Amino acid sequence: MVEVLKSGLYDTIQDLGRFGVQEYGIPFSGAMDMLSAQMANKIIGNNAHDAVLEITLIGPWLKFHVDSIIAICGADLNAMINGIGIKLNTQVVVKNGDTLSFGKQQKGCRTYLAVKNGFQTEMVMNSRSMYKDVTPTSTVKKNDVLPIQAFENKTGLTNSSIKIKAIHFDSEIIEGYRGQEFSRLSETEQNSFLNTDYSISKDSNRMAYQFEQRISNTITPIITSAVLPGTIQLTPSGQLMVLMRDCQTTGGYPRIFQLTEESINKLSQKTVGQKIRFKCKDW
Amino acid sequence: MGFELTYQPYSERSILIEWPQKIDQNILFDILDFKKTLQNSNIKQILQINNTYSSILVYYKYTIDNIYNEISTLKSQYDSKISSKSNGIKRWKIPVCYDDQFASDLEQILIEKQCSKSQIIKWHTKPIYTVFFIGFLPGFLYLGGLDKRLYFQRKNKPRMKVEKGAVGIGDFQTGIYPNSSPAGWNIIGNSPLEFFNMNVNPPCFATAGDQVKFYPVDLDQYYDIKKRVISGEFKLEMEIIHG
Q1: Any CB–CB contact under 8 A between A25 and chain B?
Q2: What is the reported pTM?
Q3: Chain A residues close to B134, C-beta within 8 Å
Q4: CA of A93 to nearest chain B CA: how many angstroms apart?
Q5: Are A12 and A140 in contact (CB under 8 A)?
Q6: Helix axes B117-125, B106-113, angle to 10 degrees
Q7: CA 20 to 30 Å from B242, out of A76, A189, A219, B96?
Q8: Quick one: which of A2, A142, A111, A5 has its CA closest to A61?
Q9: ipTM higher than 0.90?
C-alpha cells in the first residue's frame, strides 16, 4: 500500500472514466489528460483502464509500504524518491519504505503516477475515478492509505520510455469543431470567438475551464440538452465554459464549440494565466 | 408516426439526434422508443445512448470513422422502431414536506403570486409529472408538467448550498436535489427519500418515461419516513399505469 504523508493541492484517483451510467446523471470523470495518464500506464505494462493518481500543480508526499515499479507522465513537478530527483516518462523502481515527493512545478498542470497493476481503490460502476457522492471519497487526503499490489521486479528493468511531444504542453492552439448552436451566433460573434486570445482564469478545475475574457453574446439559452467533456458553453453574460471530465451530463447554455480529444488533454495541462486560442476544424 | 429528425456529429465519438426543440410527451415517447430500439439493436460500436427533452446523444466506443455510414445505420433503426408505450408506465408516489423550515423561497413566491401556501401545495401536488431524463447531478430528475400558476424564474444568484432532498421550482420545471449542492431554483420543500444511492443497482429508482406524483407530509411524518428510509424499512409506493 501507499501511505499519504502529506496531500498535494488536489489529488484524485482516475482511470478511463465511467461509461454507460450518464443516464443516471453520473459524469464520465477519468484522467483530465488521458494521453499522459495512458502513457504512464503503458510504460510499466499496465492495462489502459488501471487507476493512476492525478496530481495537480503541488504534489503529495507518498510513502511506499511495498516494492513496486512506477512511472510518472504529464506535468513536470520535480518528482523525487527519498529526496533524489527521478525522470519522467520512464520506469522507476521503488522499494518498501521509499518516499515519493514533488518539488516546484516546472511545466504543465497535471501529472500522473502509475504504479504496477494500478491503484486498487474501490471500483464503483466499473471505474475507480473519484467523484463526490459516487465513490466513497472524492479526493486523496493526508493519512489515506491507497492499496496497491506488491511487485517484485525479477527480470530487470527495460529502458522503456516514451516521450510526450513538447507541443502537448507548449501549443497555445486548442482545436475543435463548430458546436450545435455555433451557427446561431452572428458572424461578428463567431469571429470574435475565434480571434480572441484567452487567458485561463482561476475558476478552472476538473468540471470546467474558464477565461478572463468574455465575448459578446446575443443568443438565448436552449432547452436542456446533452453536453460532453470538451463542449464549450456560452453563458448569457458572454462567459465561455469549456466543460472538462467531471462536467454535468446535460446543460442549458448554447453549445458553441466541441474540442477534439487531443485538445481536451492539452487544455488540461494549462495553468492560470496561460494563453490559448481556438482553431476551428471541419468535419 | 415519425418526426423530422436531424443527425449531426457532436464530437469525434458521438452523434446528436435532435427532435423539434419542444418539451412534449409525444416527443419523449418517440425518443424513448428509438433509444430502446438502438439499445436492443446490438450495434457493437455504440457505448451508450442518453436522452434529454428533445435529443439523443449516441456515444461510440471509438472515434467515428465514417460519419455517413453511422448516420444511415441510425436512420434505418429509427424507421424500424416499435412503440413500447403499451407496456405500462411506472408512477412513483413521492412524499414532500412543505414546512417553513425547508421552504426557504416560499415566502417570495407567495408575495409575487398573491396566493396562500395551501394553494401552492395543492398546485404542486396535483399534477402527474413525467420524468424526461436524469441530468445535472447524479439522480436529478427533470420533471415536466408543472402547473403554469407555479412558473417562477430561477434565482438571479444561485445559492451556494441547498440541503439534500430540497424540492425546487425553476422556470417551468420542478425537481428534487438528490444531494446537497449549489442551486439556482427556488426551494419550496424537501423530500425524505433517497434519489441517488450507489449501494443499489440501478442507483436511481425512477427512469426517463416514468411518472411522479407528490403528496404532502407534515414534519412528524417527514422524520418518520426519513428514519425508515435510512433503516431500509420504507416501501416506496409505485403503481403501473396502463394507458
Answers
A1: yes
A2: 0.94
A3: 23-25, 249
A4: 34
A5: yes
A6: 100
A7: B96
A8: A5
A9: yes
